[in-house]
Amino acid sequence: MFHKDGRVRDEARLLLETLASLEDGELQRCQVAAERLLLQMGITFNVYGDTAGAEKIFPFDLIPRIVGAQEWEWVERGLQQRIRGLNEFIDDIYHDQRILKDKIIPEEVIRTASSYRPQCHGINPPQRVWCHITGTDLVRHSDGQIYVLEDNLRVPSGVSYVLENRDLMKRTFPQVFEGLHIRPVDIYPSKLLETLEALASPSAGEKPTVVLLTPGMYNSAYFEHSFLAQQMGIQLVEGRDLAVQDKVVWMRTTKGLRKVDVIYRRIDDDFLDPEVFRKDSLLGVPGLMEAYRASNVALANAPGNGVADDKVVYAYVPDMIRYYLSEEPILPNVPTFLCWRDKDRKHVLENLDKLVVKAANEAGGYGMLIGPHSTTEQREQFARKINANPRNYIAQPTLALSRVPTLIDDKVEGRHVDLRPYILYGKDIHVLPGGLTRVALRKGSLVVNSSQGGGSKDTWVLADSGKAVSHDQ
Amino acid sequence: MISETPLLSRVADSVYWMARYIERAENVARFIEVNLHLQLDLPLQEVNQWQPLIDTSGDSESFQKQYGEATEDNVIQFLAFNAENLNSIYSCLRAARENARSVRETISSEMWEQVNSMYLQIQMQRVTPGDESLHELLRGIRLACHMFQGVTDATMSHNEAWHFLNLGRMMERADKTSRILDVKYFILLPSTTGVGTPYDDLHWAAVLKSVSGFEMYRKKFGRISPRNIVDFLLMDHQFPRAIRHCVGSAEESLHAVTGTPVGSFQYPSEQLMGVLSAELNSTDVPRVIHSGLHEYLDGLQTKMNAVGHDLLKDLFLWGPADRAISAGASR
Questions:
Q1: Residues whose CB is less than 8 angstroms from the CB of residue B295 and which lie 6 or more positions away in sequence, other chains included
Q2: How many Cβ pairs closer than 8 A exist between chain A and B?
Q3: What is the C-alpha to C-alpha distance for residues B123 and A167, in angstroms, rounded to an integer?
Q4: Would you place residue B129 in the very low, low, confident or very high pLDDT band (cuts 50, 70, 90)?
Q5: B116 touches chain A (CB under 8 A)
Q6: With contacts defined as CB-CB under 8 Å, which chain A residues touch B106?
């Protein structure tokens, strides 16, 4: 919101003026009202490890985060390019593996990636799209540059908060919208439905049956599953509602069995089909992968696409973009040291107190060492882990994530944020303007995950002042 | 007509139970409320009228085990807040909310928010009993349940899911009206044949108030008479808590769901519902009272339970055999 020297960024000026003009306590009053509304609307997530069914609201901060039109245009182009590159890569990995044969990426890296699914070889998803819904994590470093932190190709969550946060802002704090052209986000459910319907085989007819497959109401993202199903007007199903017969997927209804054409699955690959992946899965549908392979049902996202989520594979994304698209990457990666390379490992072990170390296959802020905040004991523990299994660890410099003004008790203080835009890949690639801004509410903390003290903010992408904004899209 | 995709069986089941639990919570709240008021009007020696409430709920055994004596405090704790009593207001609202949560995409957002805030309300009261008096709490719950019914009818298409919902609430309502009539009639009966006490009218008025029927009864019959009250609660077509009205409405919804015309049947549940409805249409009150109201109501409850049971089998559970058949038949 501010330049390094303390000057207000142009795009934030109007918001700051509005905030400054508020009466004492008004901001806090709106904040309390917003939190009460969240609880009433049941916009909660389930906490694992807590008693069964314990729910919490995802803390919401009333001060929006603002992204300028020009910068967004650049981010959008960068994301579109990145998704195209990643999609080419995944398709290649499950077919010819040209990129391995050409030695751009060592074969070893793919073979040992825990999210690589050899079961998916030779599968041709509709239009050869593997990553229909992506939630890329972006961060801004103190150098002002935006970097891609993670791609999150598997089952990214959080988009419901983007939509609900905007709704909440309009309901509790409408005065701040005045005079600003903010790009609407409400279009997402329609775009998502369009993306999903386009995956149905032509034989499904005019109105294919699309369903959202959830692990059930005790899953941490259940709110989002039901919300999206409701907004799209499709059925929310659990594994036990589906059955496969003769390589066709059916759902159990009060009028008998109905054919299912497209499944937006919010279940990890591992649990999708006990006949192909984890045998002990009770959440999935036996025979689903066979139906999928026979093109009788479409799955979004395509199983196996998580291979590119491996943090070692991540390091090669810029190379993929050059290899498949013959373009220079628009969005840079965070510089990454791969511990299986001897030289990198040596550097990492010598600089553990400065780096962030991550397990290659973990997400959600788990399995991570933040060097500058760590104890000697923790660093020794990680050194042992790295030496025992170098393939499983990467390290990155500790980024000074940008901070934005956040309401803490009754004061406004700076807190670290990241940004997760959502990208839909159907007939073309659509980037939702904005995305989920997650904020580390604990002072000095760099961890923005909701499971670890993170909250969220509404994210405003300003419309180009030269262009008219259409609010009715 | 553009047909919606039929409901998932699991969803139909959850919607049905959500409606039943909300209706049950409302009834229990009303029963307690009416009894609290009744206590204030009765002479001291007649004061303990709390045991019949436990009898109405059908959970006497569980109450006996946990609390023993039916004092006001014990009964209210048990019926309103007890988590082990699966029919307490708290348990009902919790169950209603769990069911609603699992079908959030089927019901409207407004309905979900209403169920959710009802649950939060009693949950809060349970954890930190605040300034709100019991009277206010019960009134609040009753109004919130009414609001849910209103929100439901105003924001949800009267589609298949709505009919399942209506089926649930009507079956529950009929069951509750029959129970209160049964228990109270049993207690009050001796005094209707012997010398009536000046308090009989109070008791009978309380029965009517327990089902929000006092005013509507007055309009139709005027003076309080046990025979007319039985007539009103059992046979009335128009009063929304009369058993005949509930069964009629449930029957319509059942047929709307199955697509079979009223009067014919393709499932056992429809057949049983038809029998239930025909019985109500063909009996008259003097005969019922003469041959034993308790036996009659008992029979009614057994049949209503059987309808619910058959319904579950007919429409909610799909056995492997059905699956094979309809896999061949549907699109």
A1: none
A2: 91
A3: 27
A4: low
A5: yes
A6: 236
Which tens digits make up the pLDDT trace of A72-98? 999 999 999 999 999 999 999 999 999
Closest by Cα among A305, A394, A391, A337 to A107: A391
The stretch A198-222 carries a mean pLDDT of: 91
- Within 8 A of B5 by CB-CB distance, chain A residues are 209, 235, 253, 258
Of A226, A234, A254, the CB nearest to B7: A254
Tell me the shortest Cα–Cα distance from A158 to chain B, in angstroms: 17
CB contacts, 8 Å: A230 with chain B? 104-105, 109
Question: Nearest CB to B113: which of A40, A209, A256?
Answer: A40
CA distance A139 to B2: 48
pLDDT recorded at residue B188: 67
Mean pLDDT across B206-229? 87
Q: Write down the ipTM of this complex.
A: 0.78
Contacts of B121-127 with C-beta under 8 Å, sequence gap 24+, read B122/B80, B122/B81, B122/B89, B122/B90, B122/B93, B123/B90, B123/B94, B125/B81, B126/B81, B126/B90
Say yes or no for a CB contact (<8 Å) between B101 and A245: no
Query: Could you give the domains of chain A?
Result: 10-332+399-461 (no CATH), 337-397 (3.30.1490.270)
**Beta-carbon contacts of residue A326 (< 8 Å; ≥ 6 apart):** none
Phi/psi of residue A12, nearest 5 degrees? -95, -10
pLDDT-above-90 percentage for chain B: 41
Question: In sequence order, what E strands does A421-470 have?
Answer: 422-425, 429-431, 436-440, 454-461
Is the pLDDT at B327 greater than 60? The verdict is no
Spatial CA neighbour of A248 closest among A220, A276, A290, A283: A290
CB atoms under 10 Å from CB of A127, counted, come to 13
Contact A58, A450 (CB under 8 A): yes
Rounded (5°) CA angle B207-B212-B218: 80
CA dist list (Å): A361 to A272, A308, A337, A368: 18, 10, 15, 11
DSSP category for residue A240: G
- B101–A contact, CB cutoff 8 A: yes
Q: What is the pTM assigned to this prediction?
A: 0.87
Q: How far apart are CA B256 and CA B247, in angstroms?
A: 14
Nearest CA in chain A to B257: A254
CB of A374 closer than 8 Å to CB of A386: no
Domain spans of chain B, in order of start: 1-156, 157-318
What is the least distance, in Å, from the CA of B57 to any CA of chain A? 28
